[in-house]
Design brief:
12 strands, 9 helices, alpha/beta, 323 residues, Spore Coat Polysaccharide Biosynthesis Protein SpsA, Chain A, ten-stranded mixed β-sheet
Length: 323
């Protein structure tokens, strides 16, 4: 199938050698006939680069000079992929396993509908069986939430192929025309909500965002919010406010932002009561930075245990530049 569109898969690795090797092993079994693979290595010190070179010599390795976050790091690979003639770019987490026919199934659907700009597979957890992590994403404007449909359900074929609001960032396939119209990931998010924002921007350029359950992959990630660490909570809270301030329809905007804000305040109170002060402080800083419109990478020392004597008024001293 020499006429098959060129897909280049972009995998970001940061000291996750074993996960990345397993992911690349699954891609090596892909039935898709025109596939390139690129690993973006974020200054790993665990022997990742050497192991990849030994086990997968045809995989292109790009050594990143600095950590630009999920958005910025992947943008490096996306730009390179487009420059190398990619028709589609598959942005893939390193802690995933892709079914052999995943990309083939995605492209069958994408080629049948030229309006599709982003398409993603059924994502299962790493547990045995078919426990769903994401069957496509829906934005709940009233609750200010990006919902991974079916999370925690057992797949019984109840989720059909359909247009959705977003595709989970652990594995999404994006077309060149969509990238050329909507642009790359927004680096001001740094990590979390960037793929939701990306899909929303692509959707506004009249492309469809599509879920295809015949394509399948697994993702090693928690599906319970209680498992999130302080840094994850910081970015999730801050970027949630950024996303809904940017994209919520006017008739929902006040409700969306109110929900996001009240949820954060409630979370701060609950974390303190439950003996999780770092989680509480991380959420507090998220609110401070969101109101100050300070985006990008934040200093995690702000909410760590040895920083309990820091006062929030020091947020007036900018450490994260505005976009």
């Amino acid at each position: 199938m020499s006429s098959a569109p060129r897909i280049i898969t972009v995998v970001l690795n940061t000291n996750r050698r074993d996960d990345t090797l397993a992911c690349l092993g699954s891609l090596a079994q892909s039935t898709y006939p025109n596939l390139g693979v690129m690993v973006l290595d974020n200054t790993s010190t665990d022997g990742s680069v050497e192991a990849i070179q030994t086990n997968f010599p045809i995989v292109q390795i790009v050594r990143l000079a600095e950590n630009l976050g999920y958005a910025g790091n992947n943008n490096v690979g996306i730009k390179l992929a487009l420059g190398q003639g990619a028709d589609w770019v598959f942005v893939l987490n390193e802690d995933t396993l892709v079914a052999p026919d995943c990309l083939t199934r995605l492209m069958e659907t994408a080629q049948s509908n030229p309006a599709i700009g982003v398409i993603g597979p059924m994502v299962y957890t790493f547990d045995e069986g078919a426990i769903i992590s994401s069957a496509g994403g829906v934005i709940d404007w009233l609750r200010a939430d990006g919902v991974n449909v079916g999370m925690g359900d057992v797949d019984g074929g109840q989720y059909a192929a359909r247009p959705v609001d977003f595709i989970n960032g652990c594995g999404l396939l994006v077309s060149r025309p969509a990238l050329e119209k909507a642009g790359l990931l927004d680096t001001t998010f740094f990590i979390y909500y960037e793929e939701t924002d990306w899909c929303a921007r692509i959707k506004k350029t009249a492309f469809d965002i599509w879920f295809e359950p015949r394509a399948q992959m697994r993702h090693k990630a928690p599906i319970q919010h209680s498992n999130f660490g302080p840094s994850t909570l910081y970015y999730m809270t801050r970027n949630r406010l950024r996303f809904f301030a940017r994209h919520a329809p006017l008739r929902y905007k006040a409700i969306s932002l109110g929900r996001a804000l009240s949820g954060a305040v409630r979370g701060i109170r609950n974390h303190y009561r439950s003996g999780r002060p770092e989680h509480a402080r991380a959420t507090q800083w998220a609110l401070v930075h969101a109101f100050q419109q300070r985006w990008g990478k934040a200093d995690a020392n702000l909410w760590r245990s040895d920083a309990t004597d820091r006062s929030l008024h020091s947020a007036s001293k900018p450490s994260v530049p505005k976009p």
